[in-house]
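FORM 7B: Structural annotation worksheet

SECTION A. Query
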Amino acid sequence: MNKKNIFSLLVLAGACATAGAADFAGRGVFNFRSDSGCPFSALAGPANECNRLALDDADTRAAFDGAAHTIRFANPRIYGEKTIVGDVLLQGSGQSRGNGQRVPLTFHALLSRSGNEWSVSSHAHSPVGGEFSDIKIDPYQVVVIEGSAERVVFTPAQISETLSKPSIAARLANEIVQVQDNRTGGATDADITVGLGLSRASKSVARARFRAPAAKGSELSEAMRQGNWSLELQALSGQIPRQVVQRDLFLYGLESQSLLQPLMQRGFRKNEKLVLGAAGGKGYVRYDGQQREFAGADASARAFLQGSFIGLVLGWQQQQPQPPVAKADGR
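SECTION B. Predicted structure
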């Protein structure tokens, strides 16, 4: 390790010495409190730990300082190609400029390395489209350590602007993401199809369903508390990138499940289904015609419903009357 890399790790260690700070190292997903609320508060529990910090490999470290609202990333490794090494997900809410309804909003930042250089990208998730005002989100800044220097890659103002008013690129991206409400005949449990493409020319990519027959469309946490529910994800295309599937399995606590190793290795085949659920209070995971007991089904489903675009739309629909108010926004 050269002197610059050693110095960057010392800077990170110094940042962790401040009051209320924590140092995270190694591959893992870590949740922390959102003082601005969670998309589905009862799912997050009384601690409101629905904000997320993920580290994708053993070489990435992060210093979290809740008091200063700062997250610092360091990584001494040189990468041969562009590689995602971490992400930050912040939960908040905003008031729709269309109908005045307050809706959950998510800011998602991805941090990558290529060679010894950092690159970042960000987008917003919302269950309805359009612009938003009165943004409420914790005022974090995200910093990367470059040799002996620090660079702020996201400020609180930039994060709020991403949520309130999408860029031209984000607007164009949103135009090709189509979300269809599949509920008919007074059905209450959430059921959506996600497609890519412009309007009628879109191609269906995935279907997601939440079922809790005895809950009769009640709030998500109550439906799950009753111990008989299922969250079903079906690939309607064989073109979902394998890397996307692998990272989602990592983020939602599923990558170590032996039943899902074929899915980890090759991704989804067309029409394959992955189901998390509970029957009689006992969790399970089902894939490729096989079902295994899985005590972590509840935690994985809660993480998915709050941390992913599909989960956010699905959870919102579960709590809304049919049909949905507006087009979902996957900026």
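SECTION C. Observations
The first strand starts at residue 21 and ends at 25. The chain is about 25% helix and 40% strand.

SECTION D. Sign-off
Analyst initials: ____
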